[in-house]
Amino acid sequence: MIEKSLKSIEYNVITNMLSQYCVFNENKEKALKLVPMTDIGDVTESLLCTDTVVSYILKYGSPSLDNAEGCHGAVLHSEKGAMLSCAELLSVARMYRNFDRIKKWFFQYERNTDVMDWTIMSITENTQLEKIIFDSILSDNQVADTASDELYTIRKKIKGAESAVREKLEHIIRSSQYSKYLQEAVVTIRQNKFVVPVKAEYKGEISGTVHDVSSSGSTFFIEPSAVVELNSKIMQLHNEEQDEINKILTRLSNMIAQNAVMFFDSYEKILTVDMVIAKAKLAIKQNAVMPKINNDLKFSLKKARHPLIDSKKVVPTDIELGFSYDTMIITGPNTGGKTVSLKTAGLLCAMACTGMLIPAHESSSICVFDNILVDIGDEQSIEQSLSTFSGHMKNIGKILKLSNERSLVLMDELGAGTDPAEGAALALSIIEKLRSFGSKVMATTHYGELKIYALEEEGVQNASCEFNTQTLMPTYRIIMGVPGKSNAFYISQRLGIEDDIIENAKKHLSNDEKRLDSVLSQLEDLKKQLKAGQDEIEMLKDYAGNKMKQAEEKSNQLIKQAQAQADAITEKAKNDAQKVQDEAYRLSDELKVLQKQENMSAAQRLQKAREIARKDTAKLISMVDSEKEESIALPKVESVKKGDKVVIGSLNKQAVVQGPANKDGMVDVVAGIIKTKVHISDLYQDIAPKKKQSNKTGTRNVRGPRQNSVSSSATRSANTEINVIGLTVDEAILEVDRFLDNCFMNRFHTVYIIHGKGTGALRNGIHAFLKKHKHVSYFRLGVYGEGEAGVTVVELK
Q1: Which H or E run contains 742?
Q2: CA separation (Å) from 334 to 467, 484, 487?
Q3: Closest CA to 348 of 299, 311, 310, 396
Q4: What three-state secondary structure class fits 683?
Q5: Strand duo 666-671 + 440-445: pairing
Q6: How far apart are CA 559 and CA 552, in angstroms?
Q7: 573-608: b (≥16 Cβ within 10 Å) or e
Q8: Which stretches of 137-175 are DSSP H helices?
Q9: Residue 114 CA to its chain's centroid (Å)
Q10: What is the largest CA-CA distance in the chain?
Q11: Where does 406-558 show beta strands of DSSP type E?
């Protein structure tokens, strides 16, 4: 890729933005030098990595990483046997902490199928060495007392000796004999020795060594002879302290050197991850998505936006090239957005090939070009001199030499700056030459000859930029199939040119030019109408698609529920049949035993058999004719007050009213632990079902109409929820584990764990368990209507 071409489409501005999101200095510099990749495999992998990290950041937030500046050089020095400073050791420890943090962040929910897994898994943290360094080094120039037993002992001796010196000097400065000789009654330090400030005229009155003199010469800082020996001992202890510190630093440096190979490998991996995270943060900032990748040398940008223009000012546009046409001629007024359209196409293709997501619709697709060749002159000067034309032609000459079938060529105002007739002819020739190479071409122009060329030539498409004639501002949306008008007369009139000048100018237009302008106006109006119709169709298609998707989801849900109910009924029937069979065998065995009892007469055995048959037959009948849950017709409520017991019809659940209905008919109710709002029309009187009475007429009991019938024994299904309130944490975890296994086997996706609010200990214990559970995809606390903080909602894999 040519750096000048990338700069022309403002790719360097994007890399500058990317650099600001990088944590490590090496990556900040590397981001500024990034160029688009030309291998489709590398591009696809890079985009997948960025897209994966975007989803992680949106779900779990960004990882907290430290710059750890200078750590790489510090480890290099340690390999050569150098003793590292406190600051260098801390920078290495911070990087080890980064290794640990990035792995915990990425694998916090045990994911192991993403494209980033191998890169992050190969990062080797060293928490032991990290802890040793942080425990031993307190700051960039301070070693902890606990770094070694010897250092602790030496520093304890230093404190003792310094206390002894201070006591002696305090005695001197407080004594009446010496206090009159002192400039000030304080103990200070000069040249690492404890001294007292003595007036110059009395310097001979105190025996000792002079270590310093004030700038005015009025004060001598003297070390009294009484503390010379103690000061010398302190100096000796300080030397021992420094020797011990050097030993500690050397030991830590050697430990780092021993782990240097794995450190460097992990360091390169975390630089890669940091760059991907930076791309993900930029994508989130730009509301960007991952496009599809194709190897057919064609791209389709749907609802694309230039990433450097305020999204409130730009209308998303569609740009495609390489499908039914390989060349696009964009026309329209000056400042109408033509150049921005070129930059948008080139910049988004370049961003995608660098592994950055693009601000467009997710249905967009891009291809991988070997070169993006650009000739854009941003100087919108009044004077188009020969030197400007020469500069453009020189640049286009380089483009012609580099172009091939894998090139995207973007040219702004092609052929401008010279005689219009010659410029138009030259522009046509350049476009035809590029097309002969197989290059994909986008060019802007004002020449009518190029508009006609696009209308007549196969594979060439006209396009225009939408322009708001009221605000004289471009919308940056491309309208395909229609050449643009310059709108020179209208814009000039809006900017203050007198009407008679405009009318006179129109007279100078040829009849052909007037007819062309009229046709273009009609085409533009028709195109706008067609575009509006297409937008409405797309909106209706999206709406219909969403409804169809919802219907399919509902249908699948009902099918699953029906299948589950059928399986449950089948299983119950099997169990009941087995019980009946077992009971029948038992009855048969009992009758056989009765027949063998010779001490009973035939009449007695017959009577006993009848009693056994009567009793056990009733038992068998009760097994196969188990009582079904009764549904009864419940009357609707007309009004409610606090404390009323009702049944929620749509949920078939009992509830207690918390207050009267509001003006919209909504009533606050509590069903179990769930508080919610229900319309009064969905509430029924809670009437407990009566026991079945014997039916003397011999007719069956018949249910009421389904729409007016509500079961009064409404209880929340145990299939998808479990209540562990009152259990200890260990007991609750056992129950929850068994519950999740059963739900997973039954292919439930969303389940509820009721733990109550309380102190939060039970909830925290369950949450800690859920984080490690193999069946859990993610979990959250309930929201209003689900039980809020008293319920945890779990999504299973």
Answers
A1: helix 729-745
A2: 10, 11, 9
A3: 299
A4: strand
A5: unpaired
A6: 10
A7: eeeeeeeeeeeeeebeeeeeeeeeeeeeeeeebeee
A8: 149-174
A9: 14
A10: 145
A11: 407-411, 440-445, 460-468, 473-480
Torsional sign, CA 386, 391, 394, 399: negative
pLDDT band of residue 41 (cuts 50, 70, 90) is very high
Query: How far apart are the C-alpha atoms of 337 and 331, rounded to whole Å?
Result: 10
Mark residue 747 as left, alpha or beta (left: phi above 0; alpha: psi -120 to 50; beta: remaining).
Answer: left
Quick check: 396 and 375 in contact, CB under 8 A?
yes
Instruction: Give the type of residue at 86.
Output: C
Q: Give the whole-angstrom CA distance, residue 354 versus residue 288.
A: 14
Alpha-carbon distance 510 to 762, whole Å? Answer: 87
| Three-class secondary structure of residue 780 per DSSP | strand
Q: pLDDT-derived band of residue 708, with 50, 70 and 90 as boundaries?
A: very low
pLDDT in tens, 649-697: 777 778 888 888 888 888 888 876 667 788 888 888 877 554 444 444 3
Cβ atoms of 43 and 292 within 8 Å: the answer is no
Q: Which two tokens stand for residue 610?
A: 């009848």
Q: Which residue is associated with the tokens 């070169």?
A: 371
Cα–Cα dist 438/420, whole Å: 27
Distance in angstroms (rounded) separating the CA atoms of residues 120 and 108? 12
DSSP 87-140: HHHHHHHHHHHHHHHHHHHHTTT----STTHHHHHT----HHHHHHHHHHEEET
Q: Give, in order, the Cα–Cα distances in Å from 261 to each of 79, 95, 97, 127.
A: 10, 14, 17, 16
What is the Cα gyration radius of the chain? 43
d(CA 671, CA 674): 5
Inter-helix orientation angle 127-136/228-258, to 10° = 170
* AA identity, residue 631: S
Q: With contact defined as beta carbons under 8 Å apart, do 583 and 631 qualify?
A: no
Half-sphere exposure of 284 (CA within 13 A, CB side): 17
CA distances from 116 to 43, 52, 119, 120, 267 (A): 14, 8, 6, 6, 15
156 Cβ partners below 8 Å, 6+ apart? none
Cβ atoms of residues 83 and 250 within 8 Å: yes
Spatial distance between the Cα atoms of 324 and 224, rounded to a whole number of angstroms: 99
Residue 675 bridge partners (DSSP): 670
Nearest residue to 732 (alpha-carbon basis) of 692, 782, 784, 769: 769
What letter does residue 409 receive in the DSSP assignment?
Answer: E
Which 3-state string (H, E, C) describes 475-503?
EEEEEECCCCCCCHHHHHHHCCCCHHHHH
pLDDT value at residue 694:
40
Contact 349, 502 (CB under 8 A): no
146 backbone φψ class: left, alpha, beta (φ>0; ψ -120 to 50): alpha
Q: What does the alpha-carbon distance between residue 643 and residue 377 come to, in Å, rounded to a whole number?
A: 77
Residues 474 and 330: beta-carbon distance below 8 Å: no
Q: What is the pLDDT of residues 308-346, one digit of tens each?
A: 988 777 778 899 999 999 999 998 776 657 888 899 999
Check: CB of residue 253 under 8 Å from CB of residue 120: no
Q: How far apart are CA 775 and CA 681, in angstroms?
A: 40
Residue 791, φ and ψ in degrees, nearest 5: -135, 140
pTM exceeds cut of 0.85: no
For tokens 């500690």, name the residue.
248
Task: Decide if 329 contacts 443 (C-beta within 8 A).
Answer: yes
CB-based contacts of 772: which residues, under 8 Å, 6+ apart? 110
E-strand spans in 540-634? 632-633
Q: CB-based burial of residue 529 (10 Å sphere; 0-12 exposed, 13-18 middle, 19+ buried)?
A: exposed
